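Hi,

Apologies if this is the wrong queue. I'm a grad student, and the batch job for VOC family protein from Streptomyces camelliae produced an output file that my downstream script rejects. I'm not sure whether the problem is my script or the file. Here is the sequence I used:
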Amino acid sequence: MTKNSMRLDHVVLWVTDPVAAARFHADVVGLEPVRLTEFIEGKVPFPSVRVNEETLLDLAPRTFVDHMKMLPGAADSAGHPVNHVCLSLPAEAFDALRARLEHHGVPLSDIGHDSFGARGNAPRTFYFRDPDGNVFEARHYDD
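Support response: The file is valid. Your script probably expects a header line. Output copied below for reference.
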């Protein structure tokens, strides 16, 4: 991938408590918090968690609805989460994530099979929700 190719930079999730959301995504999902200390200190407007070296999930407080003025009607979408965000992991990390979620009592879907995605068909997938109701899919590919 080159610096000039298109890729996903970030997804903004609406959350009620950004600190609690960051801790869930760090402790349970296994994502690295970004700017959490700065958010707690009031230096930045929201924290994030890192999915990989190129992609973040921004954890925007629902109170930001008043700041959604970049396009007409943008504020109307505040609080309406996307259908789901899919995280692709190696098979061992997929199993470890499922075990951590179970350990923390997070409700999980059954394992699905042969689901199509960006890299073809994934042999196993499952779904879960974060504490704010955002839906996540976890999957792994054979390679």
